[in-house]
Each structure stands twice: as C-alpha cells, then as structure tokens.
Design a protein that fits this description.
Elements (H helix, E strand, L loop, with lengths): L6 H25 L4 H12 L9 H14 L2 H15 L12 H15 L5 H13 L4 E6 L7 H21 L4 H14 L7 E4 L6 H8 L6 H16 L3 E4 L7 H15 L7 E6 L5 H15 L3 E6 L16 H17 L15 E6 L3 H16 L6 E7 L4 H14 L10 E7 L2 H17 L1 H23 L1
Helix pairs in contact: 1-2, 1-17, 2-15, 3-17, 4-16, 5-16, 7-9, 8-10, 13-14, 16-17
Length: about 475
C-alpha cells in the first residue's frame, strides 16, 4: 500500500528544496570550475529564473506579507496610523517596551524584515545570511536618532553665532556627541572587510546641528570622534558613507566629507564616500566641482549617488521639476562617471580624476543601465570606474536579486563585470528602530507603483514554488 504524505508536508518539502535548488544554481559558478560552454549553458538556465527565486522561503513569505500591505492603500493607511501611534505611545498597551505581545509581533514581522538585529549577535547572524545569498557586503547604520529640526536650526543660527563659537571650543564632553560616538563605534565593530559604515552627522545632536547649519567647524569633541571612527573603519578594512541631509546643513557636510577624503582617500585607497542627491537641480554642478577638488588635491573621490530622501522638507525651487528630470539627472551623472567623461574631464588634456561610484538605487532601469554601460566599456577596451550597487534590506529585492543573477551569468566571460551588490541594514532595539520602520512604510506609500510590481513578482514566485510542490 503506497504511503500517503500530507499535502502540507509535500508543499513545504518542495518549496524548501525548490528554493535550495535555485540558490545552488545561482551559486554554481562560485563553487565549481567549468568550461566556458558549460558556464554559458548554466548561466542561460539561471537567468531564465525569476530574480526572487534567490530568496529563502521564510524571507519570501515575509516579503509577500509586507508588500501585500504596502501595495494596497486600504491596508497601508491603517498600518501607517498604527505605526505612528507606537512610535510615540501614549499608553502602555502601545509601548513595545512594555507590551510583550506587541513586541513579539513587531519583532517577528516588520522589524526582522527591515532591520538587522537588536544586538551584535543578531546583527552578525543577519550579515552572514545576506553574504551567504551572494551579496558582496552590507552597509550598516545605527538606527537610534537624536531628532533635531535642521531647518529650525538654520533659522536660529544667526542669533547664536557668537554663542556657537564659544561652545564649539568649550564643549569637550557633550552627552549627545558621546552617545553618537559610542553607537557608531559599536556599529563599526560589527562590520567586516569590504563592508560599509554609514554616518549621519546630525545624529550627534544639537551641537553638531548648529555647527553644520552655520557652516562652521565642528566641536572639537565631534572632530575627534570622526577621526576615531575613520581609524576604526580602516582597522576593520571597511569604508564609510557620509549620509546626505537637508540643504540647510549639506554644504557643511560636503566640506567635512571632502576634508576626510583628502586625508584618507589616498595611495589607491577609498575609505570615505560623500552622498549626492540627484533630485536637486544643483547636483550635477556639485559633482563636477568635487571632481575638480579631487583633481587639484590628488585624492580619490568617493561618490554615493542617490535620488534623494528629503523632498518633503526642502524648498521646492531646489528640486527638479519632474521625476523624469531626476531620473535623467541620476542616469546622466552615473553614465558620465562610469565612462569617465564628465564636464571638462575625460579628454586628452584633462584626464578623469580617480573616482569610485556607489549606486544606491531601487530603480531597476538605472541599475541595469549602469551594468550595461560598464560592460560596453569593458568590451571596447576603454577605462571604466569601479561601481557597486546597494538597496535597503527588505526593499527592492527584485533589483538586488536581478543584479546577483547578472553576476552569475557574467562569471567566466572577459567582456563583462559581475555586479557587486550590497544590502543596507539598520540595527538597534525595536524601540530605537520604530522611526526607521515608519519611514520605510511611508516610502512604500510614496512608491506604490514600484511596490505593486514587487508584490506581483513575489506572489508569482510563491505560486511557482507551490506549483513545483504539486508537480
């Protein structure tokens, strides 16, 4: 008499092993040597699989849950309202630090989807899992924030310039700066070779914010902390991203980033990257100006290119008129840097400065365009800038996994370069990460078209695995 297996067990068996088969196929070139003909055959098989086949089943199902909510406004609107209530709870029932049931639900769903962990052990486990999937590394940031209104700080600066000059010299032990220093150094201790440590300078609180808003030197305590942080990153063979912020403080952040690059991005090493926001009309000119600084002072310019994150808080006249303008700006800057022809640079009488480019984008077209441009340069035997890619943990997995597939398809060929892909992670206690989680939910609301596309792709992959289990 034949053995009858429960349908649930059969589905679980086939889904899990179907997923393992997909991952083994995707990792095949890393594990074995083969002839070029065999590589081409295997690559063709892998590239025909949907990108989300690289996701472990648990991550796939959690992603489907999150995108189901974020791609349907009738679900997302109450979810956002609920998140806003627990970010600033007015009763114990809504406090994740007091309500153990709420803490468990949030931790096992949204927190685990978007965040790396609450302590070093959890964070390192998450980083290990991500690298096992084929990612080159991670960008790690500490989620705890000291919230200071940059625009408010800038309007009050004129009345406090004299006070600032005194406090900048005398504030040798500010509690906010010390807390920021300790949190960042703890984060630095979790990254490894090739990983990236992300810094938000306004996270150091009021003294840092006032100095940045006035475009004056940072407090001595803050400057010393930055030197210590850079030394810690170098010791761990990691790099540093200086996050972009609102335009009321960005000129000072640019100057700090350039000064750090002059100090550390020398002798063929690139330690520090500045962030450039393509939605600003001024960004193409800013990139060109910074290329000139790098050329004059003989250091490598680290460029992290993003579309932008402060559109709701910036003066409208600073921002491109349409999303299409921002897309064109992003792609144009990326193309110029990749081809090493930007403005006056890249011609016989003006060689292109030493530059490295990191494309932080959830836009599939921009990521694939950059990969195509790189391969064109390689095919024609032309110089090309080193490029890496990154997306937030829990978002744009279709883009991330497609780039990983391209890397596997390109392995073994001389006319292409395997994309190096990173995931950006935030870590901290659930309470510390609530504001971060709320912003991710808002981003999904504002990009509902892209989120719907991700939702349909995830649903299709789940159905594919179920069909496999039944066949």
């Amino acid at each position: 008499m034949p053995t009858v297996r429960p349908l649930g067990l059969m589905m679980r068996h086939h889904i899990v092993y179907g997923n393992l088969w997909c991952r083994q196929q995707a990792q095949w070139p890393r594990r074995y040597k083969a002839t070029s003909a065999t590589v081409a055959s295997k690559s063709s098989s892998k590239s025909s699989l949907p990108p989300h086949c690289l996701l472990p089943t648990k991550m796939l199902l959690r992603s489907l849950l999150v995108t189901t909510i974020s791609s349907h406004r009738w679900l997302l609107t109450p979810a956002l309202k609920f998140l806003s209530l627990i970010v600033h709870p007015r009763m114990s029932l809504l406090d994740v630090n007091k309500n153990t049931i709420l803490h468990r639900v949030m931790k096992t769903t949204f927190y685990n989807h978007f965040c790396a962990g609450e302590n070093g052990t959890e964070v390192r486990a998450t980083i290990g899992n991500i690298k096992d999937m084929g990612f080159k590394g991670v960008i790690l940031t500490y989620a705890r924030e000291v919230v200071v209104d940059a625009s408010k700080a800038s309007t009050e600066t004129a009345a406090t310039d004299r006070k600032l000059e005194v406090s900048t010299i005398g504030s040798s032990n500010n509690a906010d700066i010390e807390a920021w220093r300790q949190g960042v150094l703890e984060t630095a201790g979790m990254v490894g070779k090739g990983d990236i440590l992300a810094l938000k300078l306004t996270g150091a609180g009021e003294p840092a914010m006032r100095a940045l808003a006035a475009n004056q030197p940072l407090p001595d305590q803050m400057s010393a902390a930055l030197q210590e942080i850079c030394a810690a990153a170098i010791k761990r063979q990691a790099r540093i991203f200086i996050d972009a912020e609102q335009q009321s403080v960005q000129p000072a952040i640019d100057n700090i980033a350039l000064d750090l690059m002059k100090q550390f991005n020398v002798d063929g090493k690139t330690v520090v990257y500045n962030t450039y926001q393509a939605y600003l009309k001024s960004t193409p000119a800013t990139v060109l100006a910074h290329l000139k600084v790098a050329d004059d002072h003989h250091f490598t310019l680290g460029i992290k290119l993003v579309r932008g994150a402060y559109i709701a808080a910036e003066p409208r006249d600073l921002i491109n008129n349409t999303k299409s303008d921002t897309d064109n700006s992003y792609n144009s800057i990326a193309e110029g840097v990749i081809r090493r022809r930007y403005g006056e640079f890249g011609h016989r009488d003006k060689p292109f400065p030493s530059t490295e480019l990191f494309l932080a984008t959830h836009n599939k077209e921009s990521a694939l365009l950059a990969s195509t441009l790189i391969n064109e340069q390689i095919t024609m035997g032309l110089p090309v800038t080193q490029v890496q890619y990154g997306q937030l943990l829990g978002m744009a997995d279709g883009v991330s996994c497609r780039l990983l597939q391209l890397g596997d398809s390109d392995t073994g060929t001389r006319s292409s370069a395997a994309p190096e892909v990173f995931k950006c992670l935030s870590w901290g206690t659930l309470g510390d990460c609530l504001s971060y989680l709320y912003r991710r939910a808002v981003e999904n609301r504002d990009a509902v078209g892209r989120t719907k596309e991700e939702y349909f792709q995830l649903r299709q992959e789940v159905l594919r695995r179920i069909k496999t289990s039944l066949s």
